[in-house]
Amino acid sequence: MDILGKIQLHREEERRLAWEGTFGEYLEILKERPYVAQSAHSRVYNMIKDAGIEEVNGTKKYNFFNNQIFGLEDSIERLVEEYFHPAAKRLDVRKRILLLMGPVSGGKSTIVTMLKRGLEDYSKTESGAVYAIKGCPMHEDPLHLIPHHLRDDFYREFGIRIEGSLSPLNTMRLEKEYGNCIEDVMVERIFFSEDKRTGIGTFSPSDPKSQDIADLTGSIDFSTIAEFGSESDPRAYRFDGELNKANRGMMEFQEMLKCDEKFLWHLLSLTQEGNFKAGRFALISADELIVAHTNESEYRSFIANKKNEALHSRIIVMGVPYNLRVSEEERIYEKMIKESDMSHVHIAPHALRVAAIFSVLTRLMDSKKQGMDLIKKMRLYDGEIVEGYNHIDLEELQKEFADEGMSGIDPRYVINRISSAIIRKEVPSINALDVLRSMKDGLDHHASITKEDKERFMNFISLARKEYDEIAKKEVQKAFVYSYEESAKTLMDNYLDNVEAYCNKNKLRDPLTGEEMSPDEKLMRSIEEQIGISENAKKAFREEILIRISAYARKGKKFDYNSHERLREAIQKKLFADLKDVVKITTSSKTPDEAQLKKVNEVIARLVDEHGYNTTSANELLRYVGSLLNR
Ligand SMILES: Nc1ncnc2c1ncn2[C@@H]1O[C@H](COP(=O)(O)OP(=O)(O)OP(=O)(O)O)[C@@H](O)[C@H]1O
Ligand SMILES: [Mg+2]
To answer: What does UniProt give as the signal peptide span (predicted)?
Structure first.
C-alpha cells in the first residue's frame, strides 16, 4: 500500500478507537472490562507481560525487549520482577522513583525509550486502553470522581480499588460545569503520545541555578488571574509540567542527579505518598511511573551526601551494566549499523565479532579462579564450552564481582571507530583488521581513558587480533576444501573404520581390491597427533571413542562429526595440516601460475558465495592469511 493509503488507514483506525461518554457510561465499560482502570504501573507490567515471556535456562526472557536490547537479560529480569511486577500489585515500590544506573551508552535510554514507545502503542490496544476525564490537562482518572466515603461500596460492586483524590481543578469543574452531577462528567479514551504530551513526559535538567520547579509541576497563568480573580483558582493555573502531562503513563527523568538537591527535595512527597504539590493547591495524586537514569559516579556522590538520605531511601536503583556476551555485543553493533547511515557498507564477516571481543574483554574483571584467564572467561560467558569448566564455574564467575560490566569500552565508541574506519578507506568495504586498527588509534584520543587502562586495552587489541588470526585461518582453509563438511566426514569415517578394526583386533577389507589388510596405524596416528595424543594414550582414546559410538547407538542417536569434541578438533586440524602448504603457496605467491590462479579464484568465489564476503574483503582475507602462514 502506498503511503497516502496508510495515512488514511491510520486516521480511520484512530476514529474507530475514539470513545467519549458520560461517567455513567464509563462505569458500564468498567463492568465489562475492569482492567481498564488499572494503575500506570500495572499497565506497564501488563504491556511487558502481554508481549510474552519465555524461560531459557532459568532466566526469563521478555519478548518486549527483543530486537532492541541484547545481553541484558539479568538486568531486565530484575527490573521486571523486582520493580514492575510488585509495583503492578500496588506495593509501595511503585511510589519510588526507578533509577537506572549504569555506564555510558550501556542501554539505559534505550530501555526507557522502548517503554515510552511501547506505552504509546499499548494504549491503542484493547488491553492497554486508558480513559480520562475529558478536558483535563492531567488526564485524570475518572474514578477519582467517586467520593472517598463511597469507595468501599464501589469496591464491593466493581472489585476495583480507587486511589487518590480528585484534583483541585476537576473538583472545581465538577461544581461549576457539572453542578456536582458526577454521572454527567464527560470521560474520553486517551492515547498516549509523547509528541502530544499525553501520558508520556520527559524532563531534562537545565542549569541547576535557574531550574524551575514549574517545569515539573506547571505554573500560574498570569494572563488569566484577572479573569478568575485569584491565584488560588485552579483555572488560573497551567497544569502543564512534565509530572502533570505524564500522569497515567510515565515520565523519564533524564540525568536526575545532575539536578540541584533542593530541586530534588520537591520529589519527596511524590516518592512517599504518591502526591505532588503544585502552586497553592492541595496535593495532586499522581499515577505515573517515574524512571530516571544516571551514571555510577554521579550516583556515588549522591549517596555520599548525607543530606540526600531521605530521597535516597525512596529511590529504587537498578544496575544496567554493559553486556558481557560477545555474540550479543555483535548484535548490538549490527543493530546500530542498521540504524545508521553506514548500512550500505560491506562489513566483512567477523569484523564485528572481533570488535565485540575487544570491548567485552575491556569490561571483564580478572578472576581469582585457578587457571582462569580473560579469554576463557569471555568464552564461558558467551555460552561456549571451555574444557575443565562447567555451568557451576560460570555461575561462580558471574557472582565474583558485583560491579563487573560497569566500566570498559562502550558500544558508541566502537560504532564511532567503525565509521571512521569507513571514512578512511576508499572502498565501502571494511574488515576486522580495519576495525581493530581504528579502535587502537582511537584509544589515543579517548578522553576518559587513563594511561593504565590504555595499556590494558592495547593488550586486549592484540588478544582480539590473535582470536581473529585463528578465525581467519580456519575460514580460508575451509574455503580451500571443495566441500569441507564432506571431506571431514570422509576422513572421520575412514578413521573410525580403522579404530574399530584395531580395537576388535580385526582386519579391514580394501573396498577396491577386496583384499584383507591391517588397520592403518599411520593414518590413525596422523590424526591423533594433531591433538597431542601420545603413543601410550592412543589405545585409551580409541576405546573411548568406540564406547561413545555404542552409547550413541544405544540411544538411537547418530554418531557424527560433531559428536566428539576432541575428535572433531583432530579431524579439522588434520585436514588443515594437509592443506597448509597448498594454502601457503597459493595465497602468498606473488606470481601465481595458472593452476594457482584458478584455485585462488575458486576460493574467492566460495568465500563470496558461501561465507558472506565480497570480492574486496575476500582478497584481503586471502592476502592476510597468506602472510600469517608464512610467518
Ligand atoms: N545492551 C544493549 N543492547 C542493545 N543496544 C545497546 C545496548 N547497550 C547499548 N546499546 C546501544 O548503544 C547506544 C547507546 O545506548 P543508550 O543511549 O541507550 O545508552 P545510555 O545508557 O542511555 O547512555 P548515556 O549514559 O550516554 O546516556 C544505543 O544505540 C543503544 O541501542
Ligand atoms: Mg542516555
So the answer is: none
- Spatial neighbors of 613 by CB under 8 A, at least 6 apart, are 348, 349, 604, 607, 621
pLDDT tens column, 421-476: 988 888 889 999 999 999 999 998 877 788 889 999 999 999 999 999 999 988 98
All three cell numbers of 159, joined, read 472489585
Mean pLDDT within 134-147: 95
pLDDT value of position 103:
94
Average pLDDT of span 287-301? 91
Structural domains in the chain, sorted by start? 19-319 (3.40.50.300), 326-480 (no CATH), 484-577 (no CATH)
Predicted confidence at residue 269, as pLDDT, reads 77
What residue's CA is closest to ligand 1, atom 1? Answer: 70
How far is 92 from 86, CA to CA, in rounded Å? 8
Q: Would you say residue 208 has pLDDT above 80?
A: no
Q: Does residue 237 carry a pLDDT above 90?
A: no
CB 528 within 8 A of CB 538: yes
Q: Which residues contact 171 (CB under 8 A, 6 or more apart)?
A: 234
Q: Ligand 1 centre and the CA of 411: distance in Å?
A: 7
Residue 234 confidence class, pLDDT cut points 50, 70, 90: confident
Q: How far is the CA of 112 from the centre of ligand 2 (A)?
A: 9
CA distance 111 to 336: 15
| Residue with CA closest to ligand 1 atom 11 | 107
pTM listed for this prediction = 0.86
Question: Which of ligand 1's atoms lies nearest the C-alpha of 107?
Answer: 18
Strand, coil or helix: 225: helix
pLDDT score at 77: 95
Q: What is the largest CA-CA distance in the chain?
A: 115
Residues with CB under 6 A from ligand 1: 69-72, 102, 104-110, 295, 323, 332, 336, 411-412
Cβ atoms of 165 and 285 within 8 Å: the answer is: yes
Hey, is 291 helix, strand or coil?
strand
Q: How far is CA 189 from CA 124, 140, 311, 477, 547, in A?
A: 10, 11, 35, 64, 69
pLDDT-wise least confident of 308-317, 468-477, 586-595: 586-595
Going by alpha carbons, the residue nearest to atom 7 of ligand 1 is: 107
C-alpha to C-alpha distance for 64 and 102, rounded to whole angstroms: 21
Q: Measured in angstroms, how far is the CA atom of residue 594 from the centroid of ligand 2? A: 57
> From the alpha carbon of 100, which atom of ligand 1 is closest?
21
Is 131:201 a contact under the CB 8 Å cutoff?
Answer: no
